[in-house]
Amino acid sequence: MRTCSRQEALIPRGASGRVADVVLGALVRDGAVLLARRSPLKRHHPDIWDLPGGTVETGESELHALARELREELGVDIEPGSATHLYRVATGAGGQRTELSAWLVREWSGTPSNLTVDEHVAPSAGSTRDLPEPAHPLMRPALEAALERLLR
């Protein structure tokens, strides 16, 4: 594991040997990635653009949690076979450590819309080359590198 700061670390794929705490989905179509603006009332990382997703529940796989979260938040059904793991990021320290796992999703059905107004202000698609600053500093370079590698 390469540590980038005392509170954050980029984790090599599969290195932790466990299911992540939080899953995120980069829904990508025609060179655009779908982001959701977090509600300004959120306790963690309010009012920023982020990948949609959420907490992995006990007994869920990461893909099952991702499919459930994207259905609940955006009203889309992902095609699990189209999901490719992008990266893992660990944030926090000690007992407050959280492991995030991001996935690239290329196929889904339904039109993304904001079904959780307490979570997000609005979803919006933008160019993968023009991403806003994410919640965690390591996420942007990891996402850009993964998207460049996978979308060539």
Automatic annotation (TrEMBL):
GO terms for molecular function: 8-oxo-7,8-dihydrodeoxyguanosine triphosphate pyrophosphatase activity; 8-oxo-7,8-dihydroguanosine triphosphate pyrophosphatase activity; 8-oxo-dGDP phosphatase activity; 8-oxo-GDP phosphatase activity; metal ion binding. InterPro entries: MutT-like, Nudix_hydrolase, NUDIX_hydrolase-like_dom_sf, NUDIX_hydrolase_CS, NUDIX_hydrolase_dom. Residues 17-152 form the Nudix hydrolase domain. It is an enzyme of class 3 (hydrolase). Keywords: DNA damage, DNA repair, DNA replication, Hydrolase, Magnesium, Metal-binding, Mutator protein. It comes from the Bacteria. Its EC number is 3.6.1.55. Gene3D superfamilies: Nucleoside Triphosphate Pyrophosphohydrolase. Its cofactor is Mg(2+). It catalyses: 8-oxo-dGTP + H2O = 8-oxo-dGMP + diphosphate + H(+). GO terms for biological process: DNA repair; DNA replication. Belongs to the Nudix hydrolase family. This is 8-oxo-dGTP diphosphatase. It comes from Phycicoccus elongatus Lp2.
